[in-house]
Design brief:
CATH topology: Serine Threonine Protein Phosphatase 5, Tetratricopeptide repeat
Order of helices and strands: HHHHHHH
CATH architecture: Alpha Horseshoe
Structural class: mainly alpha
Number of strands: 0
Oligomer: single chain
Largest sheet: none
CATH superfamily: Tetratricopeptide repeat domain
Strand content: under 5%
Length: 117
């Protein structure tokens, strides 16, 4: 993604993927990180804040993709920011589908909304 963003800093998909990647890596607990490091070499250390920044850049470039809002909601849920998570999950699920993965992502968002109460 770094190379894609060097070539085109306005690549909304690359910012989204980088944000999602940061969220997934930030979710890894220390024991799993240690085990993965032993098997594959060290994993990069990142944060939910880095994930948030990337997805916000994707939204700034293209505000019409529901998956961006759903991912931001997932990041906020992981950060414990329940109200923000709900706000962005609801926004993403209320937008029209634009891509083939949107229905699946919306189902994921609805499941998370149920868990958030």
């Amino acid at each position: 993604m770094d190379r894609a963003l060097q070539l085109d800093p306005k690549n909304d998909t690359a910012w989204y993927i980088l944000g999602r990647w940061n969220r997934v890596l930030a979710d890894i607990n220390p024991l799993k990180r240690l085990l993965a490091g032993a098997l594959y070499g060290s994993l990069p250390v990142t944060t939910y804040d880095a994930a948030e920044r990337c997805v916000l850049k994707a939204i700034a470039i293209n505000a019409n993709r529901p998956i961006f809002y759903i991912e931001l909601g997932r990041i906020y849920a992981a950060m414990g920011r329940k109200d923000d998570a709900k706000k962005f999950l609801l926004k993403g699920t209320s937008m029209p589908n634009r891509e083939k993965d949107d229905p699946e992502m919306k189902a994921t968002a609805r499941d998370l909304l149920k868990k958030l109460g």
